[in-house]
Amino acid sequence: MRRLLLLTFAIAGLVAAGCGSDAGSGKSGAGEGAASQTSATPETETTGADRQAETKGTTVKLADSQFGNIVFDGDGQAIYLFDKEKSDKSECYDKCAEEWPPVLTDGEPQADNGTDQDLLGTIKRDDGKSQVTYNGHPLYYYAHEDPGQVLCHNVTGFGGLWLVLDKAGDAVS
Questions:
Q1: DSSP three-state, residue 117
Q2: Where are the domains of the chain?
Q3: Which residue in 50, 63, 82, 154 has its CB near the most CB atoms, within 10 A?
């Protein structure tokens, strides 16, 4: 029993410490608002048709989470914005992009399940790849989450705050 309790605390500490880092300090960026691990309930499961649509463009949809309905990709992966970015130009590269990979697309992004096609767009990254935007915000994943997890909402790292988005493409408070 004691081992199980110690293991639980160790895992909780790793999850809280794992949400990005500040490039200059090398320290964990988990802030006071770090979320605990819970699972979202995506509305649909990924099918062969979903995968085929992704080759045409990444799907963005709403699904329920501990923060209400928020934006996920077609596979149920939580999507974040970086509040340091005050325009549609990405400022997350190198180590930042390793921890917070950009949401990329090979075609026009597709709105599904409550998201607005008119709010979707793309920008070109420095490497020429197309990054998905929603309501003008470049979009990112957290590299250490599984589909349905929202571990790093309201977490500080790399000089800004990482936040999930609502239906309108605004940061969830």
A1: helix
A2: 2-164
A3: 82
